[in-house]
Every structure is written in structure tokens, then in C-alpha cells.
Design brief:
The structure is a homodimer of 223-residue chains.
Chain A: H1 24-42, E1 47-48, H2 50-57, H3 61-69, E2 75-76, E3 80-82, H4 83-94, E4 100-105, H5 109-116, E5 125-132, E6 141-142, E7 145-149, H6 153-159, E8 162-167, H7 171-183, E9 188-191, E10 204-207, H8 210-222
Parallel strand pairs in A: 4-5, 4-8, 5-7, 8-9, 9-10
Antiparallel strand pairs in A: 1-3, 2-3, 6-7
Helix pairs in contact in A: 1-4, 2-3
Chain A binds a DNA duplex (24 and 24 nucleotides) through helix 3 and strand 2.
Amino acid sequence: MANPTGSGQEENSLLIAEGERLSLGVAARLSRYLQVLTQARKMGRETISSQELSEYTHINPTQIRRDLSGFGKFGKRGVGYRIEFLVEEIRKILRTAGHHNIALFGAGKLGEAIANSDVFADHGFEIVALFDVDPARIGKKVGALTVRDISGLKEAVKLDQIVVGVLAVPSAAAQSVTDGLVEAGVTVIFNYTEQLLQVPPEVNVHTSSPAADLLYALYFYLS
Amino acid sequence: MANPTGSGQEENSLLIAEGERLSLGVAARLSRYLQVLTQARKMGRETISSQELSEYTHINPTQIRRDLSGFGKFGKRGVGYRIEFLVEEIRKILRTAGHHNIALFGAGKLGEAIANSDVFADHGFEIVALFDVDPARIGKKVGALTVRDISGLKEAVKLDQIVVGVLAVPSAAAQSVTDGLVEAGVTVIFNYTEQLLQVPPEVNVHTSSPAADLLYALYFYLS
DNA sequence: TAGATTGTTAATCGATTAACAATC
DNA sequence: TAGATTGTTAATCGATTAACAATC
């Protein structure tokens, strides 16, 4: 688990050599900054200080300045960071500047809520397919999408260049959808169900865990 | 930010002295373990190894054994950890063994999905009130709950001993609901919207960020 | 100029890991 | 017994923080 970003010394301008990888921690924090910056931009803000970023992310402001200064001098003393510019720079660093296509599974209440939300769109993700197993739902329109039968999954992954699967199905259906995604070659899965999913090692499952997040918050704020 | 749990030496049996606090990292990880253990139990599993816990949480197995052994000898060599027992022990450590009441805001698709899910119930949280501002929705039944007018918030927080607010409203409404929660004395807020919320320092906001989580996953699995 | 905030250093602390004896 | 997995050590690495000069 080498940290190729070093701790800053010989790196002054943007240097993320081709084969190198950010450490897990740095990549996680940069993603958080991006989330806040994107929303701040949406709200019409033009600059933001490390102090403000800290309030929204719960990450120490010195840590934030350190993370960013490792890749270049992005800020302006006395002013802060230009949001527009910083968003672009972080996207370059994370190499996720492009467009990424998502397949959404489950056209129930949660699935519809996700399909109608712009939480993914704001970050360059596009939901290009919506699947369900329930025949009663197939063909139904949800926003701009038409609910498709899950049997067309493999073909859709190829045709639509889907790189992420989002599970908004009942827990009982999550594993079989996952198996289909894995077979189709999708390696990133976002799981809104509680199901513990069995996947091969090359596949990355991220499970939403609001209850665990709350337990953590409660520990500090109620005790 | 002292870590009162130390790194294990003079602590052998359960010792979380009254005033002491877990470090942020330990509390976060224990919450993750709890999430996986709870689901594994639901699936009928009786024991689990640090290796398996690692696969589901992406936390190093040695780290897991270290975290747990700081509070007692919870495992059995050659076997693993008894899930039922470990759940109880971690709940004691996190001091969140009891029941916690939640107020849910927003009776739209997302709100209904949350109200009908057992993701919170499985961890000792109970949604005891569901609020909306839309007069057309007030009085509507969602599961066992009746949608109430948000004007009754302050009273409900007192009567129902609500300690957590969950926001499933449109982004544009999130700040005003938050202000109401803060005024009513709620200090833990789970935010499903994208809105950056302004709160006093004693209030803890946790914002759901599936897109940021995906960006992070994509960095490692597509590059 | 005065105030604010970055970029950076240096020091400390916690997380991470490999390795392995203990023991179920 | 043989195999598996915990509990624990020791060594290293990354995160965290305070502090402050640089500079907008």
C-alpha cells in the first residue's frame, strides 16, 4: 500500500505520474471535497476556504490544504479556492472527469426517487438504463427512462457502456441482480439494500449504511 | 483528540471508563462491524471470522481483531466470533444499545421508501413521526405512520423523544426543516438531500453522498 | 495598510501490516 | 492430531495538528 503521492517535497506542480495511484485516504477525501464543491457551485458560490470545506466535510482544514497543495498551488492566500477551478483540478486528479453510465435496478419507490434525483447527474454519472423483474412495471416510464426487463442486462451493459450498477431492489433480489452484473463485466456496484453480497475479488461493492452512520453520530453527540 | 482506549496493554477485560471516549476511527469502524454483523445474523449466520468481516467492510482483518481485542476476548481461536454475542458487546461499547426515535421529513417517493424499509429498525431506530409541508399529503397513511404537518415538529420532538431527524425532502426545503430541528433541540441530522446545511457547531449533520462514494470506487476500479 | 487564508514545516499520534505463538 | 483463526507484538507508514511565514 505504497503512497505514491509522497508527502510533498519534490512535487510542486501537478504530478500524478501515469501508473501511480493515490492512497485510499487521499482519494476518499478528494471525493468528499468534490461533493461539497459541486453543491457550493450549484448554490452560486465562487470561492471557498479550507475552513468552510472543513465545516461541511468534518475534515481538518490543514489536512485539506495539505491534500490539495500536494498537486499544485490551487488556492489564493487571503481568498481561498476558486470553486470552478478546483472542481476541474480534482476531477483530473481522480481521473473521473468524463461521463460514466449507470444501470439502475428496481423501479419501486426508491428506484423512482433515484431516477428522478440529480445526485448522480451532478457528478458526471448518467442513469442510462432502468431494470426491474416485475412484469407489471416493465414498459413503464420513469422520467426519461423506460423500465426494461432484466433479461436484457448483458446486452445493455455492452451497448450502453455501463460501468456502474445501482441496486434499489428488495434485499431478497439483490444477490441475483449482482450475479448478473458480475457476469456482464460490471465491477462497481452501489448497494442500497442491506444484503451482504457475494462477489469475486475484482468487483467493488459499496453498501449504503445510513443506520451505521447514525450509530456513529449518536456515539459522539448523545454520550 | 486523545485516544483513551490506548493501544492495548493494561486493558484486558471490558474497560471503557465512564467519561472516556472512543477515537473517531474506532467508533466509525465499530459501527461498520455492527452493520455487517446485524445483517449476517439476519441471514442466519452464527459465527464470523475477521477475514469475512474484512471482505464486507474493506477493513483489514488484523485491524478488526485489534479493535475488538481492545475491549475483551470476544473471539474463539480456530472458530471466529459469535455474531449474537459480538453484536451485544459492540452495542455496549458504542452505548447505543437502546431505542432511538427518528423523525422523518418528506413523504415523497424517497420518504415512503425509507418509511417502509427496515434499514433503521434493524439497528434500534424507530421512525415515530413523518412530516411533510404539502397539505395534499398530510393525513395520508404510510405504513403505520400518518403524515403530519410540520408545524407540530417542536411538540413531537418533546413528546416522542426524537433524537434524530432524517431529511428526505426536496433540496430547496432542507434548510428550513433543519432550522426547525435545531430549534427543537435535535442534534443529529441525516441528510439525504444534496443541500449544504448551515447548523450551529453542536449539531451533527451527516449527508448521504452516493456520487462521491462512486467517484472514489471508480478511481480504484477503472483506472 | 490590515486582515485573511494559503502553503509548508515539524512534531506527534493513530492506523496499518506482517508475522506468529496460542489455542480452539 | 491437523487446520483454522484469534490475540498480540513490533515495525512502519500515513494522518493529524499547531504554528507561522508568505502573500493575496
